[in-house]
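explain this chain.
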Amino acid sequence: MKRLLPLIALLVAAAPANQNVPRPGYVRVQLNTSEGPIVVALDARRAPATTKNFLAYVDDGRFDGTVFYRAARDKRNPKEGFVQGGIRTDARRILPPFPLETTAKTGIKHLDGTISMARGQSASSAGGNFFITVGPTPGMDARPGYDGYAAFGRVVAGMDTVKKILAKPSGGGLDAMKGQMILKPVAIRSAKRLDGTPKPTGEPKMWLYNFGG
């Protein structure tokens, strides 16, 4: 038994630490989807503006009842790519824009399991849509002449769920999204912060009102 003790200690030391625990400077959010939960840790220290924006959507319930609608698979390796979700073009849920925090500014790269903000042509057009990478996607990082996307955290639990979403049958779409729209979108039933106190914006929740009579 005495001979086994050093080996057991060595194995324990070599085991990876559980990443799904509170850590200073990070705020965890759980996305409860129809395919299972995903927990992301947002880097509030290095990407404060992007984290604040995402948490505003979470704390207001603006992601509740939205979907993952895009599965962009790498043609060379279909098991890698990214999944995209959020409010799509629902103007009733959108909050004001905020400045782009580039990867050159934050140092947060698009690696496996990175959460980042989707945006249009304008650098400050990110809002209520986000994506999660499967495998490294360095082409989304900033470089000279290209702003890239605002990475602001990473998945700490539920990458199996992300991979399930990436594997969903897809089609339709136009231009850059051609063939990438998930045919049966994956529901985001709720998004809840696991750390800290919620800070709702107090903005009207217009999507909750039925104006159809």
About this structure: Helices lie at 4-14, 48-60, 103-106, 159-166. The beta strands are 26-33, 36-43, 66-73, 81-86, 114-117, 129-134, 151-157, 170-171, 181-193.
